[in-house]
Amino acid sequence: MPEDINISTVRDSFRESLASAKSLQELDEIRVKFTGKKGTLTQLLRSLGKLPPEIRKSTGQELNTLRDEIEQSLELTGKKIRDTENENQEFSQRIDVTLPSKGRKSGAFHPVLQTMHEIADIMQGLGYSVASGPEIEEDYYNFECLNVPAWHPARDMQDTFYFPDGTLLRTHTSPVQIRSMLKYGAPLRIVCPGKVYRRDNDTTHSPMFNQMEGLLVDKNVPFSVMKGTMSEMLNAFFGKSLRYRFRASYFPFTEPSMELDIECVECSGHNPHCRVCHGTGWLEVAGMGMVHPNVIRAGKIDPDEFNGFAFGIGLDRMAMLKYGIGDLRLLFDGNVSYFMSGFGGAESC
Ligand code: DAH
Known about the structure:
Blueprint: H1 7-20, H2 24-35, H3 40-46, H4 53-93, H5 111-125, E1 129-130, E2 136-137, H6 139-142, E3 168-169, H7 175-184, E4 188-197, E5 208-218, H8 223-238, E6 244-249, E7 254-263, E8 282-291, H9 293-298, E9 307-314, H10 315-323, H11 329-332
Parallel strand pairs: 1-4
Antiparallel strand pairs: 2-3, 4-5, 5-9, 6-7, 7-8, 8-9
Helix pairs in contact: 1-4, 2-4, 5-10
The structure holds 3,4-dihydroxyphenylalanine.
3,4-dihydroxyphenylalanine is lined by residues 172, 174, 213, 251, 253-254, 287-289, 310-312.
């Protein structure tokens, strides 16, 4: 046995190496170092024969014990390392079902539809129901019942799309006033949002656009209720208290008639170069008036007993004002280059 090596030194060196082994590869290196062909323990065993007979047996036993310890320890530590590696691998591959998902981009309502919902919600809060009527309408409901007979010059106000059979694409949501009175009678409070059509097509007009009709019929309805209802609805919609201006106007189905202007939502009248109000400080948002007795009568309600008011709001305009959309075409066109021309910029819609 080499003089500089004794059994306890080898044992200590083995234990120390084993304690720092982290991988199976390191473990294999330790095995080779101690029990490989040229390993320390192998050399000691080989040199046994050279020992004096009196210590050969006991040294042999000691070396065998050390070999057993080395083999068992290597096996045990190998198992531990393998278990840890498996665990780590399992952990890294585990799917944590409690993690939040990456999320998906969801769609959004079209600004006009959103506007429709918002105003309908506000009006429902004021006790109105949502009614609907056909887009392909009869001349009778679209004009005749609304105090616009065939000879009436007001028919020129609305260029109409006619079908060969005489039906037409409704030019406004006002025919739903008649249909609702005929269906529900009085008292009545309805709003009717929907598409309407006119032979108009330029940068500020689309042949299809959206309106919201409103009708209240009851006994002794004062003019002030109409004004209050409109300001209530507009303040709720725009989320701020605006100034209003009622201008005398003319509609065949109301008397008196007026148009409603709101203070410019963009500049409140302070910017003479405002792109929204063009410096006027006012924006026209609705036509309205006290329902003409002829219209109430067409709805099979007695105008001596009931009166009321009606209004028509341009929903596209309301959406543009609320959401800062500067170009009407943005609402109906898929052309993304228009997105750069809105007064609120690309993010606004
Ligand atoms: N129907 C009208 C239009 O399309 C808008 C309107 C004005 C509706 C006055 C009404 C009203 O109910 O009272 O221009």
